[in-house]
Amino acid sequence: MDSKKPPRWADKLLQFVCAPELFEESQGDLYERFLRNATLFGIPYARRQFVRDVLGFVRHRPGRKAAVVVKNTINHHPSASLFQPAMIRNYFKTAWRNLLKNRFYSLINMTGLTVGLAVGMLILLWVQDELSFDRFHSKADQIYRLENRVGTGSSQQIWTTTVAPIAEMGKKELPEIKDAVRVTDGNLYALFKYKEKTFAEDHSAFVDPSLFTLFDFKLIKGNPAKPFPDDQSIVLTETTARRYFGTDEPIGKVITADGKTSFTVSGIIHDFPKNSSFKGDLFLPISLWFKTIYTNRKDGRNKDNDFHEFSYVTFLLLQPGVNTTALADKLRTIHLRNKPDDTDLTYLLQALPEMHLYRADGTDGGIESVRMFVIIALLILVIACINYVNLSTARSMLRSKEVSMRKIVGAAKGQLFMQFIVETALLFVLSAALAIGLMSLLMPVYNQISGKELVIDFSNYRLWLVIGVTIAGTLLASSIYPALLLSSFEPLKALKGKVSARLTDATFRKLLVITQFTFTVILISGTLIIGNQLEYIRSKELGYDKSHTFSFYMRDMNSHYEVAKAELLKQPGVTDVTRSSANIVSINQQTGSSDWDGKAVGETMMVRPMAIDKDFISFFKMKLPLGNNFTGSVADSSHFILNETAIKAARIKNPIGKRFKLWDQEGTIIGVVKDFHLASLKQKIEPAVFYYKPENESRIYVKTTGKEAAGAIAATERLWKQYNPDFPFNYTFLDQTFDDLYKTEQRTGTLFNVFATIAIVISCLGLFGLVAYTAQVRTREIGVRKVLGASVPGIIQLLARDFVKLVLIAIVLAVPVAWYAMDQWLQGFAYRITIHWWMFALAGLLALAIALLTVSFQSIKAALMNPVTSLRSE
Amino acid sequence: MRRSYLGEFEEVVLLTVAVLGTGAYGVAITDELDRQTGRAVSISAVHAALHRLEEKGMLKSHLGEATAERGGRRKRLFSVTILGSRTLHDIRAVRDQLWDSISPQGLPAVSL
After folding, report:
1. Domains of chain B by range and CATH?
2. Which of A241, A191, A197, A193 is nearest to A221 (CA)?
3. Quick check: A30 and B45 CB within 8 A?
4. ipTM of model
5. A26:B55 CB<8 A
6. In Å, how far is A56's CA from the nearest CA of chain B?
């Protein structure tokens, strides 16, 4: 049916090119002709002819003069089209000449644009990378991570790992769940050996075989239907396989783990993409894990009934459109049926693509930085655009004569508009090319400070998307207004020297300068406050002394601890040695399994437990306001030391000698330790319990004198080799571990500094250009003033006053915005600085000083000029 | 009074409009041109010429009835104005005058 009609697109094209009042008859004529051709020569010919006829109309453009201007039928003479090749050549020629003629301003514009575009694009690339996390799976929007919310009241927690049986049961009982995969990184094996090569593997995991089907981690070698043919199979990533076997065929090779168990390589997967939250090197069947931990269990637990061990990261593949809250409730019902006393436990589902940017409870995590940086990128781009708009509109006054002449000679408004658009576009294309070059240059530095591994891969369409959108957006934002303004001059008035009111009244330009400096002040105060907060974190009294201390996990050294300790203390540079079960900088373990007299029914207090040696408290110079320390006696195994927060949370009065139970260990409280920061300062201090159990204390701390630290480390390594000949010696200084806690914040701080600096530089560049222009326009005025006796400072003041006023307004506008934004950021820290007015005052002063510096350079130059030269120039 | 100038194609179109009388619109003019002169011209070219002539005041137009074969679109019917008529007559007078001034031997003989 449709093919009996003329082609629709041609019809549409006709409507587009034809003036509205002529459209009906033209279309009618073409239809009539189409029908005749169709009967005479057949439909294909008629359709072709129709298109040909329409194209004829495109050429003649009946009733239309220009692409944008529709004139009425009377009073039009056929005039040159906007897009004739000759005109286009001319646009480029004049644009190029203009750029060359005003080298100084072109340079300022281009520098600002290049830097702005390069930095803006770099940030947006980072943002794009962040947003792309975990989205590459074909079923990404149906995959969820199963989580538990546990505890009551203030000690409520979210665990991202859950119990083993829930995945199987859920899959069996609930039709919403299509598939599930469990992952646990149990440390059964550490050393893997193939022939002469031995590696200590940190990234091995026990997984369900569905890992390779549910996610897009497809086997590239091996049997996809059965990734693990038996419990002694192992799947490796490409890189891992290459590490062991070089270029040899990996499938079927046998790797020995810890010298006792052999695994046959049964599959190879691609390396994990950089934007995958899930990573690993070696994968073993989870059935082996279950077999190992549940064989010969006295408590009768097995993989199908153990609702105690929350150590499995579980991903569910759901049917499309499933209500996750309802599903979570159903899972909870299953859990409670099997373990009725977990009344404080609920289930949660987090969508896979949200794992990277949101916290486990769904609140904002990394997405905050993403938002912050999107805003900064936009600010920088806007500042760069404003520069261009300001300079070109300001300078348009100088060009009013050119424009008027063109108009008088017969240029249509549309043509002038095009001319200025082309001029801007040319400058942008040059800047964009430079910006891409600059980006490639800056990439390594940028990766270093942002902690990413971004590459500029020109074959990647995403890169072009970012580049294209950025450039098109900025070009659009900065070309239209100046072009409209310039093409709107009224020739006679302009030639007489009266420029349209829109120009002399520079309100718009002033507004833009204010905007620029508002952004600048916001960025400066942000930098100041972030810097202050980071400094505060670093210097805050932690409640323990972590200086010059390094620490490591002892492995087999733990069973010879006393000997090793005595040996270490003999070394020069070592002042003290102690041990505990966790790293004091960040105690990760947590349990709700505690009891005390006065505990309410259904109450859980989450505590951070840590086994410590008897000299631990003195080693870290911690304070015991109440009670005593462990003495190392046998009785200590039923003694506990709680921190003040724990005492407060448990509401225990006169704690010394009171009953306390941790896990299955009944005992008494023998001391109260003063609160110390056992995790990042973003978190409040939580309840903590010290207990005494030397066999658990496998982390050793060695305090050095600082100066002789290197010698102490070397000595320790020699000792390490005695007990752990196969393992590499990995130690970290507590200061380093502590700094690592704030890596993201440090990074944000550094990036913020860099971006703020760039924003300031670009703003100043624009200001510099504007002042230079003002001085140029007022050369003669300044000359006359000087002849009449004006002083140099007077003239500088004259030129600078206006700009200073603008900056002051900007400061007033910026302070509330910056205050609010930084307050929001600080909310992320449990321990934070208070925002003081002087921070904003300082930021304002800085902005003012920078602006003054920029302005005064040109002003002084203008003021010092000899009036004879400036007045003779007419 | 301005001297009006007609291009050759415009002149032919103007004449065709006169030939067709009351039924002069785009397609009809194109067809008539084809038949009378053997020139296959595109509709768009005819349209352009018609509008130019109208602007010059040699044609006037009104919208006619719609027919089914035109998909319900009305046709624009053209007729020659006084100015158009006079211009045509002027041109013809000039031509006639020139023809009359040619001496019998002035043109090589052409056998028709």
Report:
1. 8-95 (1.10.10.10)
2. A241
3. no
4. 0.82
5. no
6. 5
Q: What is the DSSP string of A604-628?
A: ---BEEEEB-TTHHHHTT---SEE-
Backbone angles phi, psi at A382, to 5 degrees: -60, -45
Q: What is the pLDDT of residue A79?
A: 47
User: For position B16, what pLDDT does the model report?
Assistant: 92
Higher pLDDT, A679 or B19: B19
User: Domain ranges in chain A?
Assistant: 2-60, 140-354, 367-537+743-872, 549-734
Residues 6+ apart with CB under 8 A from A291: A231
CB contacts < 8 Å between A and B, how many?
Answer: 74
Whether A642 and A605 have beta carbons less than 8 Å apart is answered as no
How far B77 CA sits from the closest chain A CA (Å)?
9
Q: List all residues of chain B from 60 to 79 with a beta carbon under 8 Å from chain A.
A: 63, 66-67, 69-71, 73-76
Blockwise average pLDDT, block size 10, chain A, 874 residues:
73 81 84 87 88 79 42 39 71 84 84 89 86 87 88 72 88 89 82 84 88 88 87 90 88 86 90 86 90 83 83 90 88 88 85 85 78 86 85 76 81 80 86 89 83 75 81 82 76 65 64 87 88 84 84 82 85 86 81 80 81 86 85 84 86 84 85 85 84 84 85 86 80 85 80 85 85 80 86 84 87 91 85 86 88 83 80 65
Q: What is the C-alpha separation between A241 and A247, in angstroms, rounded? A: 9
- B44, B66, B69 member nearest A59 (Cβ): B44
Residues A557, A720 contacting (CB under 8 angstroms):
yes
Contact B27 A29 (CB under 8 A): yes
Q: What is the pLDDT of residue A364?
A: 76
Tokens 């002063």 belong to residue: A845
> Which two three-digit tokens encode residue B72?
């319900």
CA distances B60 to A72, A379, B20, B57, Å, are 16, 59, 14, 7
Q: Would you give the DSSP letter of residue A359?
A: -
- Note whether A646 and A584 are within 8 A (CB): no
Using a CB-CB cut-off of 8 Å, the residues of chain A touching B62 are: none
